[in-house]
Amino acid sequence: MFIALLAPLLAGLCVIASAPARAEVAMVAVASNFTAPLAQIAAAFEAASGHEVRIVTGSTGKLYAQIANGAPVDVFLAADDATPRRLVDDGLAAAAPFTYAIGQIVLWDPAGGPVGPERLGNTRFRRLAIANARLAPYGRAAEEVIASLGAKEALADKLVRGENIGQTFAFVQSGNAELGFVALSQVLALPAANRGAYWSPPADAHAPIRQDGLALRRSDGNPAATAFLAFLKTDAARRIIQTHGYDQE
């Protein structure tokens, strides 16, 4: 009798256990330079997990301010390693940051002219675009490269600053600036015929652009955020990151 009554209950439990986990949404804030690889990673993650990733982009500084003011973000992928540490100090992090990519900066000329230190020394151009160093780590790296070349004073009147590396790239792509220091990943995202020419400064010309990410306190209990961060560390995601022009540890 007891066994007969228990059988339907056990059958029900088996159905529940075999049912797929409910899909959830992870809100991911990402620095502008990493937008293209993140879109590809998110698509692969969604296909594999059934969860959804919603992406918000902007400069690292602006995203930090939004998160500090309560923006509903689960995961933050910064363009530096200092800003995630600030979120830890602010008590807004759910776990310690980790380095997901090491960015590469390039001097880019979409017209395909010769680029390199000599191009910056020859100031026969109107505008050189860089990101705002107060908000974007790629802007700081650009200023460091310019200083390492001893060209700070010569180029001071030619600089046009984008709020983030996305806007900086747009300045150059649109022709509002002939040259610009942008992320290598942005150039590689273009069709090969439209990449023009670019120059990679030597590694010692600027501090490494270590891009760190972390889970925020809001992500506690969100399986989509937890699963996404785990996926970001897989070989599949690492291959995507590398093909977009980033180094890794």
What does the model show?
The protein is α/β, with parallel strands linked by helices. The chain has 2 domains: 26-103 and 209-243, Periplasmic binding protein-like II (D-Maltodextrin-Binding Protein, domain 2, 3-Layer(aba) Sandwich), CATH 3.40.190.10; 105-205, 3-Layer(aba) Sandwich (D-Maltodextrin-Binding Protein, domain 2). The protein contains 11 helices and 10 strands. Strands 2-1-3-10-4 form a 5-stranded mixed sheet, with helices on both faces. It has a 5-stranded mixed sheet with strand order 7-6-8-5-9. Helix 2 crosses helix 10 (223-232) and helix 2 (35-49) runs antiparallel to helix 11 (235-243). The radius of gyration is 22 Å and the shape is globular. The model is unreliable at 1-20 (pLDDT under 50).
